[in-house]
Design brief:
The protein is 63% helix and 12% strand. By secondary structure, the protein is of the alpha+beta class. It has a 5-stranded mixed beta sheet with strand order 2-4-5-7-6. A two-stranded antiparallel ribbon has the order 1-3. It is an enzyme of class 2 (transferase). It comes from Actinoallomurus spadix.
Length: 375
């Protein structure tokens, strides 16, 4: 058994030689830090071999073994080091090939907008990186699609609002000029013009309010004052607020809620969303038709369903019904304002972490709002 002092001396010599070579290797890695992975792996392999050779040389000199034995030991170590260097170069070549394949895919994605992972088999880390890049490009593509849809909606909004503002403003100007020039002088006509001016002013005010609300929603500036309320109370208030419009139109309006359903919502904002849905349903339901509001709970969510008798909506229009300024076929446009009511309703519901959807059902459409139940 080797004496402890001799063993400690061997360790000291080997460690000293290895540390010197290791320090030189670290310095080389720092100097070549901008080079390819193959070069860096070659430096690591060479440092490992040289550290081993230096340690063996130091030990054999200290142990005073024969030149023949020393040569054999150093030769075996050098051969092993060369094999290790070759393996490192092959590994570096594989890594370089994988990274270049990823780089080619990324460059191609810059032209096509879609990222396709390389067909060659990559190391696990590069495969994971490729999957993350693919997911990132998919998210970016979805964001671009949303941006294009939003820009389209903005252009449509400008066009529709310009039209809807121009028509009442032209009427207001004509009536104001007629009154100013005393073209209209009889008392009955004057009162009629005043009433029309008031009605058009109210309509324009409501349109401006809708635009302001929509701008707050799109800017993320909609601040909700949540409180615990019963969904049945919201349904009752919605029915009471829209009953005069339904009566004037000759539409039957009915609302019911299944028990006490607590929800944490901004009662004013959610009430506005529900009124928009009901007003939309009443406007597009023919005389002597019916509009029904039903509230309940299913699958852990509260829901409010508004059903009308509008005759249905073409399937191709359903996905765009909540878009800004979208009106669809002409049969659904009378009295529809700037087409902002449904867009505002969607924005308010989504701000409450809820969902809103529409489908054709029975003699018309069924709008459904889903909200988390209050705990």
């Amino acid at each position: 058994m080797i004496p402890f002092t001799a063993f400690a001396e061997v360790v000291a010599y080997a460690a000293g030689a290895a540390l010197l070579v290791g320090a030189a290797g670290v310095a080389a890695l720092y100097a070549l830090r901008g080079r390819s992975i193959t070069v860096l792996l070659a430096v690591v392999s060479a440092a490992t071999v040289l550290a081993t050779v230096a340690g063996i040389a130091a030990i054999t000199l200290k142990m005073l073994i024969s030149d023949h034995d020393r040569s054999v030991a150093l030769t075996v170590t050098a051969i092993g080091g060369l094999v290790g260097l070759g393996v490192s170069l092959l590994l570096g070549h594989r890594l370089i090939g994988g990274t270049r394949s990823l780089l080619t895919s990324v460059r191609a994605a810059g032209e096509t907008g879609r990222f396709g992972p390389p067909e060659r088999r990559l190391p696990a880390e590069l495969t994971e990186l490729g999957a993350e890049l693919s997911a990132a490009y998919e998210r970016l593509d979805a964001a671009r699609a949303r941006e294009r849809a939003l820009e389209t909606s903005r252009r449509e909004l400008v066009a529709w609002v310009s039209h809807d503002l121009r028509t009442p403003l032209a009427g207001l100007r004509a009536m104001a000029e007629a009154l100013e020039d005393e073209v209209v002088a009889d008392e009955v006509t004057v009162r009629q013009y005043h009433a029309q001016i008031r009605a058009e002013t109210d309509r324009l005010t409501a349109m401006v309010d809708d635009l302001f609300e929509l701008s707050r929603i799109h800017a993320g500036a909609l601040r909700l004052s949540r409180q615990r309320v019963g969904l049945s109370d919201l349904v009752s208030e919605t029915v009471a607020g829209t009953e005069p419009l339904a009566r004037a139109k000759g539409v039957r309006l009915r609302g019911e809620a299944d028990g006490v359903l607590p929800v944490e919502v901004d009662a004013a904002e959610l009430g506005r969303a529900l009124r928009n849905l009901v007003v939309n349903a009443i406007r597009h339901t023919p005389e002597d038709g019916g509009v029904e509001i039903v509230a309940g709970a299913e699958e852990g969510m509260a829901y409010v369903a508004v059903s009308d008798a509008c005759g249905g909506i073409p399937d191709e229009d359903l996905p765009r019904l909540f878009d800004v300024a979208f009106r669809g076929e002409a049969a659904r446009t009378p009295g529809g304002g700037a087409g902002l009511g449904l867009a505002i309703a969607r924005g308010i519901v989504e701000a409450h972490a809820g969902e809103i959807g529409v489908s054709n059902a029975g003699a018309g459409c069924r709008f459904v709002v889903r909200l988390p139940l209050g705990v």
